[in-house]
Each structure stands twice: as structure tokens, then as C-alpha cells.
């Protein structure tokens, strides 16, 4: 987000914080993956998140890395164990017309969504692997470069650390993905 902000407001902040505003990547896992995916899919003409204090409209990063992300928040598309949490988040059931589409990055994908790497374990019992498959497929259909790494026998929340085989494999995938970016 800082990248896009600094691209619009000048290089003083980028210089101050010592980063290249044209080379930012949003990364997140699970609910944090949802936030990173939202950042990557909110169009600059969307009022979601707009405030008078935040004058910059285009806050998309140049790429996104999403670990087992929550990209589809429609209760009907989720495991039964997650449905109460989603409904509690919105304070309404899907039948009550809660804004599930507005809050689902999957429903916001367009051809301006940045290049994305998804990493998901095939034993995830919190966020369906199918969500990452669908997300990647919709990115592909919109002409957006997307990669999906499926880790065998890996449950949800595997990415918090750097020592397990799954963590090391995901870090190698991220390094390869980032080296392949053309910014």
C-alpha cells in the first residue's frame, strides 16, 4: 500500500523509508491473506476504504503472495466450521443479503489485479483448497499471471515459521516467484 501511496505523493516517503515504490508485494496468511488479497483487488474507483484522510485511491501492490487465503466469504462456499465466524463478522446470514461479494476478493478480480502467488496445503480444514484453485483460475481467465503451489499433507496455518519442510518449500516458491517479477 505504501508503494502506491508514494507513487502518487512523490518519492519523499519512499526515500524516507528506503524502498522502491514500484516494487511492492502484499503478503498475508489466512485472514491476513484476505487483507492482502483485498488490497490487490480493490479498484482505484471503488469507495471501499476511501476516507478524506486517505486521499490516494490506487493502493494496489505490484504483486501479491497469499498463504491459504480467505478469498471467498460466502458462507455457502465454506466449511461448516467456518460459517459461524463469517456470519458473525458480518452480523448477518447469507440469506439476509450481507455484503459477502463486496468483501470477497474472488468477486473483485479484474484484469488489473496484480500478479499473484497462492500457497495452500491440501489438508487445510479451515479454508478450502478449492478457493485458491478458483482464485488462480479466475486470475488466469482475466489475463493475470497467477501461480498456485499446493503443499501435500499440509494443514492450515503452516506458514508461521521457517523450519518445517512446508515452510521451506513455500519460502523457495516465494523466492522463485519474486525473482520472476518484471518490475
TrEMBL record:
- Any idea what this protein is called? Alpha/beta hydrolase
The keyword Aminoacyl-tRNA synthetase is assigned to this record? no
Q: Name the PANTHER family for this protein.
A: AB HYDROLASE SUPERFAMILY PROTEIN C4A8.06C
Q: Where is the BD-FAE-like domain?
A: 12-139
Q: Tell me which Gene3D superfamilies the record gives.
A: alpha/beta hydrolase
Question: What is the species listed in this Swiss-Prot or TrEMBL entry?
Answer: Paenibacillus hodogayensis
* GO MF annotation terms: hydrolase activity
* InterPro entries reported in the protein's UniProt record: AB_hydrolase_fold, BD-FAE-like_dom, GDXG_lipolytic_enzyme
Going by the UniProt record, its keywords in alphabetical order are:
Hydrolase
**What would be one Pfam family of this protein?**
BD-FAE
Amino acid at each position: 500500500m505504501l508503494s502506491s501511496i508514494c507513487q502518487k505523493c512523490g518519492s519523499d516517503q519512499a526515500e524516507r523509508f528506503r524502498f522502491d515504490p514500484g516494487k511492492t508485494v502484499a503478503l498475508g496468511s489466512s485472514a491476513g491473506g484476505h487483507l492482502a488479497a483485498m488490497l490487490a483487488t480493490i479498484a482505484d474507483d471503488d469507495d471501499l476504504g476511501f476516507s478524506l484522510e486517505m486521499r490516494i485511491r490506487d493502493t494496489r501492490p505490484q504483486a501479491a503472495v497469499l498463504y491459504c487465503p480467505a478469498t471467498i466469504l460466502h458462507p455457502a462456499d465454506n466449511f461448516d466450521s467456518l460459517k459461524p465466524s463469517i456470519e458473525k463478522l458480518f452480523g448477518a446470514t447469507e440469506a439476509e443479503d450481507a455484503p459477502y461479494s463486496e468483501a470477497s476478493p474472488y468477486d473483485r478480480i479484474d484484469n488489473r489485479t496484480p500478479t499473484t502467488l497462492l500457497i495452500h496445503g491440501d489438508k487445510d480444514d479451515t479454508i478450502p483448497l478449492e478457493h485458491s484453485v478458483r482464485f488462480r483460475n479466475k486470475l488466469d481467465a482475466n489475463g493475470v499471471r497467477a501461480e498456485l503451489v499446493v503443499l501435500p499433507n499440509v494443514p492450515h496455518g503452516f506458514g508461521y515459521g521457517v523450519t518445517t519442510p512446508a515452510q521451506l518449500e513455500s519460502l523457495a516458491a516465494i523466492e522463485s516467484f519474486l525473482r520472476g517479477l518484471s518490475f
